[in-house]
Write a structure and sequence with these properties.
With about 200 residues, the protein is mainly alpha-helical. It is built from 8 helices and no strands. It has a single domain, classed as MetI-like (MetI-like fold, Orthogonal Bundle), CATH 1.10.3720.10. The chain is elongated and about 70 Å long. The model has no long low-confidence stretch (mean pLDDT about 90).
């Protein structure tokens, strides 16, 4: 059994980090504004969350398989992996953001309106600040989950630490599997601790 060189572990760790970073940036850019939009539209909210739930139930390898043949979206490489990972990351971001916004006390909203605030000011100065801890919690859940799921990206040439895991399985080499699994676990633990710290800092006293 041979342990992969440190340089390769670092390279694939950076690839893995980039996959997660791009995925979470897209999921946040889509999920948080969608939550703001859906918070004012109860009828659309139910359907949007339902579709996000459906995306979560599809096994990751099956989802990659569905996306591969789609023109402009599919194909071998990181792009397809990122799209699939975004589908998985969207639900916790959307759901927690909605929970945070809808959880703002109606009396606080009414007080803000009574003070002459516009709807935009209420959103930016009242609702989003109060919902921020819940939004961060959703990002935390999605980030940790994405770090683990991103190992599957190697199955379609997306790179990342999954390369070691698939290689180790093919070779029946425990050291190679651990070279992918251990850095991914460490990355998830660090991300969880950092985002938990941010969540605590932004939570009301």
């Amino acid at each position: 059994m041979n342990t992969p060189p440190v340089s390769e572990i670092l390279t694939l760790s950076m690839q893995h980090f980039e996959l997660v970073l791009i995925t979470m940036a897209i999921a946040a850019a889509v999920g948080i504004p969608s939550a703001v939009f859906l918070a004012r539209r109860p009828s659309a909210r139910r359907w949007a969350v339902w579709f996000a739930n459906i995306g979560q139930t599809i096994p990751s390898l099956a989802l990659f398989g569905f996306l591969l043949p789609i023109p402009g979206i599919g194909g071998i490489g990181a792009r397809t992996a990122i799209i699939a990972l975004c589908i998985y990351a969207l639900l916790p971001v959307l759901r927690n953001s909605l929970t945070g916004i809808l959880g703002v006390d109606a009396a606080i909203r009414e007080s803000a309106v009574a003070m002459g605030m516009t709807a935009r000011q209420v959103l930016w100065q009242v609702e989003l600040p109060l919902a921020t801890p819940s939004i961060i919690a959703g990002l935390r859940i999605a980030t940790v989950s994405t770090i683990g799921t991103a190992t599957i990206a190697a199955a379609i040439g997306g790179g990342g630490l999954g390369v070691f895991i698939f290689r180790g399985l093919a070779m029946a080499d425990t050291n190679t599997i651990l070279a992918g699994a251990v850095p991914a676990a460490i990355m998830a633990l660090i991300a969880d601790e950092v985002l938990e710290w941010i969540e605590r800092k932004l939570s009301p006293a």
